[in-house]
């Protein structure tokens, strides 16, 4: 559905009971507040009372969305009350702290405690509901923190523009009956110092994407606290730059990519924050003079299916779109998945009936482990990501390009994520959904991430520029997909290394065929391709040309390659995890004294040892058509698949499996077995005004074309000429043809 059509449905209803009942957490509750203390005019006083009530209902879910006498809510509410009582009783205001154990500035912790106290004040079942002493303590704490810390805050800009004001304003709104006009004015004045109206004038720098949504949320809370209609209007109108699709920089792309910090795939970090923030603002502002009616806001609804759902597996958000947040805590992927689910359920209230029902069913599926997920392939060329789903397993690959960072580090986080963009291949099978959740990042060998090709050169923590400033010069990164299978490729350049390679992944029905070619390096150290590095203590069996890891899957490594293996326990941060590592050693400085190195292997998620051995004994199942720095391709007769990544075109590109291309591109042909075939092409470099692809197969005609298809030649062979691919952001173009020679 187009954005304008969706805008007609952006009339957000009240919060769904399912939001709290399915996700069951106090993070989705809300509180009742008394009449506002701000100086409101008779004309707008009722509107701000509504906004206060709506903020309570949407952000915390009360009243009406749960029974405080039922479990688990009863226990959790009582726990919150006990925590708030401890905080209240321990408050000892001095110039250096509000609590003795939290010396100022305590940017996160002190405001968070005040907000927790305010929630306990307003929620039922805490034992402190509407308790005057607690409300007064919140008011005094906010005033004290504003006077001694916030008004003179220094450090990371995010803290004083977003983190601190949001927590303090939230607490002030929830405990409003106990804040004096003077206290409210002081808080608003401090917020205005760091988030003046002018902060939302330009959509650039630290005011884009999720940061812009956060700033608008702070502005709305400031408007609610101070009874300011002008700021409420600004909070709504300043969201408009977030909605349109972008072609560069931060925001949503038409292929479903979401970028923040200019070059980092971030659905599972800033994207989740953005989705949650927008869902909240849509709901809070409904029925007010500032209700969101921008037609472009339909992009947010589209993003549920395009940008977020593909990266949620068994309720957890995949790490390849979580930026520097991957090593913050174990099971952080599950926490982000729950946040996305909560936002989707809230947004479902704005969606057409069919999508509302589908999204609710989707979130229910995420909540129930080992449920079936839709099969198919999703390629995200603008963020160098791909996700492949088949019955019983799922795989995803993260790459780096001239547009997308190798990795992001900042604020001391993810300092060893160097090679996550070097073709890391994630995969999950039934019962293995926590593979990357349970202390994987602190314990895994960062030089041997699954699927990567790397120089073994030791790197310093935080190698490369911070905040995603680690983009390589590679232009050919992406591929093509028909929605079922895919040909994905990466022209790889090592991070702070002379390494260069060409890597391809062919995603099929029960396997991923992995090819590497042109591997060259001058670092004076060995170069390795990591077939896998699995967090598992299961039995590893190695046969002739294959290996198998019990409960996980199999690996086929054709003759001529020496598969090396290692079993080890790795310890970090006080935890120990077992690993099974399989890799191919390309030697020291491949491409120098000898030819460039290469590799071929098959990953078979969920396969048993007999299946793996049988596939290894059948080399013709997937025939390698080419594996060079000019082209990489395979043919799988049983699937009717021929796929080639042409790194060069024309004569230099050559021919593979009857396919030729005039220029660098990705081509996937699939014989559907009913007398027709699909021909799918893409221009990963986004550089071609024209591309001609030929297929040496008799074709009678085209049954479905494509808007970019300019010329067609059929008969003894097929020739397709496409135009304007440079403007497609790497998206695939598909044509369906009728096989055979026309008798007309």
TrEMBL record:
Matches recorded under SUPFAM superfamilies: Chondroitin AC/alginate lyase (SSF48230), Galactose mutarotase-like (SSF74650), Hyaluronate lyase-like, C-terminal domain (SSF49863)
InterPro entries cross-referenced by the UniProt entry: Chondroitin_lyas, Gal_mutarotase_sf_dom, GH-type_carb-bd, Lyase_8, Lyase_8-like_C, Lyase_8_alpha_N, Lyase_8_C, Lyase_8_central_dom
MF terms (GO), sorted A to Z: carbohydrate binding; carbon-oxygen lyase activity, acting on polysaccharides
Keywords carried by this UniProt record: Lyase, Signal
Active-site residue list: 261, 270, 324
Family matches, as Gene3D superfamilies: 2.70.98.10, Chondroitin AC/alginate lyase, Polysaccharide lyase family 8-like, C-terminal
PANTHER family the UniProt entry points to: HYALURONATE LYASE
Family of the protein in this entry: Belongs to the polysaccharide lyase 8 family.
Name of the protein in its database record: Lyase
Species of the source: Microbispora bryophytorum
Taxonomic lineage: Bacteria, Bacillati, Actinomycetota, Actinomycetes, Streptosporangiales
